[in-house]
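Q: How would the structure tokens look for this protein?
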Amino acid sequence: MVAGELLGARGPAVSYTPIIAAHVKLEAGTSVEVQVPASFNAYVYAVRGGGRSSTVSFAKNQLVEYRRDGGSVQVTASEALDFLLLAGEPIDEPVVSWGPFVMNTREEIVQARDDYLAGRMGTLEERT
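A: Here is the predicted structure in token form.
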């Protein structure tokens, strides 16, 4: 669990709006159903493996999108599967993107790029 609350676990990241950000691992043939508030948009992104989410099949590097689709996200692994579950309330703000960066204005994108190039984005640690 990265941020928000899911299945009784709370992630360490602080967010300004309610979100769920989780890395989920499933063995082949197993399923998970995650309750998501009906007002949230949700995304399932396959990092490794493939599966089925509701009626949509997906493979590695594919994204399944739920737009305020109701109270849950269901995923079944057709093979060993790692996926990211990202969900949150839509904030309906302007969107400007550049590469992996998404901000609200061009000026914010330039600042994000400058911060990245200067090494001010932090580091990721792998936990087992």
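The mean pLDDT is 86.

The helical segments are 106-117.

Upvote if useful.
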